[in-house]
Structure formats: C-alpha cells, structure tokens
Amino acid sequence: MSKKKNLDLAPSRRERKTVGQYILLFFLIVYTLFCALPILLVFIAAFTDEKAITQNGFSFFPEKWSMSGMNAVLRYGKQLLTSYGVTIFVTVVGTLAGLLIMAMFAYAISRKGFMLGKFLSVYLLIPMLFSGGQLSCYIIYTSMYGLKNNIALLILPLCVSTMNVIILRTYIVNSIPGELMEAAKIDGAGEYRTFFQITLPLLKPSMAAVGFMMATVYWNDWQNALLYITSDSKKPLQLLLINIQKSIEFLLNNTNVPASVKAAMGGTIPQYSATMATVIIVIGPIMVIY
User: Fold this and answer.
1) In this structure, are 93 and 223 located in the same domain?
2) How do residues 245-268 score in pLDDT, each as one tens digit?
3) Do residues 137 and 156 make contact, with C-beta atoms less than 8 angstroms apart?
4) Is 61 exposed, middle or buried (0-12, 13-18, 19+ CB in 10 A)?
5) Do 66 and 84 reside in the same domain of the chain?
6) Is residue 255 part of a domain?
7) Domain check: are 85 and 65 in the same one?
8) What is the end-to-end Cα distance of the chain in Å, rounded?
9) Final residue of a structural domain among 194, 218, 233
10) CB–CB of 181/199 below 8 Å?
C-alpha cells in the first residue's frame, strides 16, 4: 500500500506531460526548423555547382556539387588568415576593454554619494541623443589624433555604448545589495577594492549578456575598417570578404576576363556559391561559440 502511495506522489515524467506541452514542443520544433533551414541552405549552396544554381535556383538537393565557390574565397589563404587574426584580436580586446570601462562607469554613477553621478549620467546620454556625424569623426580621428590606418580605430569607436552602461548600472542598483558595499566600507575597503572584489564578481551575468552583444558588433563591423584602414595587414575579415565580393562582381561585369582566370575558377565565375562561401566563413566562428 505504501509503495502505491509513493508511486502516486511521485508520478513519472511521462504521466506529468500534458497536451499543451506537446503542442508547445511542436511549435518549438517548427520554429527551430524555420531558423535552421536557411543556414543549412547556405551551407549547401556554397558547395553547389554555379551552373546548377543558375539553371535551377537554390535547392536542398542540388544536381551537382562543386568546390568552385569555396575555392574562390580560399584562394586568399594567407590574407584570409591575417584578417581572421585581426578580427579575433579586435573582438577580444575591444570586448574586454569595453566591459571593464563600462562596468566602472556604471558602478560610479550607481553610487548615491558620488558627487559627479548626475553630471556623468547626463554626459553619458548626450552621445545617445546627438552625434557630430561621420565626417566630423573622420576628421578628428585622422587629422587631430593621427590614427589613420591604426588598428585602435577598430576598437575605440565601439568600446562604450550608452545602452550597455545603462544595463550594467540597472543591474548593480537592482540586483547587488547596497548593504554589501556598505559592509565593505565599514571594514575599510576603498572604492577600487569594493568594485573589483565585490561588485565585479556579482556583475558577471549582466557582463556576459553585454559582452556577447559587443563581440557580435565587433565581429560584424566593417565600416570603420573601410574608412580608416588602408594596409592589408590590418584589414579585418568583414572588409576582406566585401573586397572579394567586389572582385567577383568586377569579373562578372568585365567582358575582357582572361581565359586563365576563368580556367582557374572552373570555367565559370562562381557568383552565388562564392557569396554563400563568404557567409560560411563569417558565421562559422559565431556558430561554434553558440
């Protein structure tokens, strides 16, 4: 009798499932397929023969496979590795530096007794509402600061975001007890020690969310590189792939393409498959991190 009661009190997971859960599971599977199938199509199209794409369009079951599109991108082998290194360096350094700066800024304006708190809050909001424009930024960075073709210009303009500081500041105010900071102050801890030993460790969940958004922005940025970077050794991945696409478009629009170039590309210029190959190279590391 007692065993039967225990079974009733602790039913199996199969017995606890309801019709609503199965319906929710069905919609989640459909939504997952809705998100995953386009990515799968990109991977398939990157290895599809260019003539098959031209004749039949994109398909999950291509008539003929080909490496021409991927080879057109991988032909930039050494420069591709260099651009990968630049992008990884900019993403890692920019994200870590930005998180540290914004976390300290958010901590400072979250302190009630800080006399410059209101001033810094208004100072933070001004760039969010007003901007000098791209031309003024270009003149200041290149003429005044002399940072033309400097890799720092791939990091500094995106290092601090008003919205991210607000997110971190809100998390400090609402999720970190002020009593901990007061207790640390009573024990003789200064502001730096309070921040690095108490606030910063408790701020990790919010910093993880903000850091992922920052890393995505750094990884996908190409406009700053287009404006400020001139040397190939400092060219990030996104700008390199744009240049590859422009080269392919130039070859497509040029009627005097040498036969040796066409022969190296398998007889045809892989416009669509090469485009999908560049997409794979861009999203590959992000998918691995996910």
Assistant:
1) yes
2) 887 777 767 666 565 555 555 556
3) no
4) exposed
5) no
6) no
7) no
8) 50
9) 233
10) yes
Last residue of a domain, one of 211, 233, 255: 233
**Is residue 109 assigned to a domain?**
yes
Q: Give the range of the structural domain holding residue 40, as residue numbers without chain letter.
A: 12-71
Residue 282 lies in a domain: no
Shared-domain flag, residues 173 and 62: no
Structure tokens at 5: 């009661």
The rounded distance, in Å, linking the Cα atoms of 72 and 81 is: 15
Count CA atoms closer than 13 A to 27's CA, side-chain side. 5
pLDDT digit string, tens, across residues 3-53? 454 544 544 555 677 888 889 999 999 999 998 898 899 999 888 888 888
DSSP states of the chain: -HHHHHHHHS--HHHH--HHHHHHHHHHHHHHHHHHHHHHHHHHHHTB-HHHHHHH-S-SS-S-B-SHHHHHHHTTHHHHHHHHHHHHHHHHHHHHHHHHHHHHHHHHHH-TT-TTHHHHHHHHHHHHH----HHHHHHIIIIIS--TT-GGGGTGGGS--HHHHHHHHHHHHHHS-HHHHHHHHHTT--HHHHIIIIIHHHTHHHHHHHHHHHHHHHHH--HHHHHH--SGGG--HHHHHHHHHHHHHHHHH-TT--HHHHHHTTTS--HHHHHHHHHHHHHHHHHHH-
Flag whether pLDDT at 1 surpasses 50: no
- For residues 99 and 133, membership in a common domain is answered with yes
**Dmax over Cα atoms in the chain, in whole Å?**
90
Query: Are the beta carbons of 68 and 266 closer than 8 angstroms?
Result: yes
Distance CA 58, CA 75 (A): 24
Q: Are 109 and 171 in contact (CB under 8 A)?
A: no
- Is the same domain home to 140 and 48? no
Number of domains in the chain: 2
